[in-house]
Amino acid sequence: MLTPSQLQRLASAAKSAFACEQRTGLPAETTVAQWALESGWGARAPENNCFGIKAYSGCQVRQFVTQKVVAGEAVAATRTAVRRSSREGKVSHLSEK
Fold first, then answer.
1. CB 88 within 8 A of CB 94
2. By three-state DSSP, how is residue 96 classified?
3. Rounded CA separation 39/54 (Å)
4. What DSSP string describes 24-74?
5. 3-class secondary structure, 82
6. Can you give the pLDDT at residue 68?
7. Cα separation of 77 and 95, whole Å?
8. Most Cβ neighbours (<10 Å): which of 20, 34, 47, 74?
9. 78: which strand partners?
10. 24 φ, ψ to 5°?
């Protein structure tokens, strides 16, 4: 069962995914499924970067501290995320080169 917070994030992601489907033909269900898996239902989307898209020349970025698991232990790790608007973060995986 989804929490109220997850349902709210899902509604936002679904709206963006549907708009993306209209432009690209990629089924909204595919985008939402990928979004849910990669962002933990929107809980882990630093700078609205729901798909973990890496930085590229000329983009705005932000560094943040997160965790990764090494040999079964959680350790701090610094990551760089592409700074995106909420809408861009949900649909940008389709336009990255």
1. no
2. coil
3. 15
4. H---HHHHHHHHHHHHTTTTS-GGG-TT-PPP-TT--EEEEEEEEEETTEE
5. strand
6. 78
7. 28
8. 20
9. 65
10. -115, -20
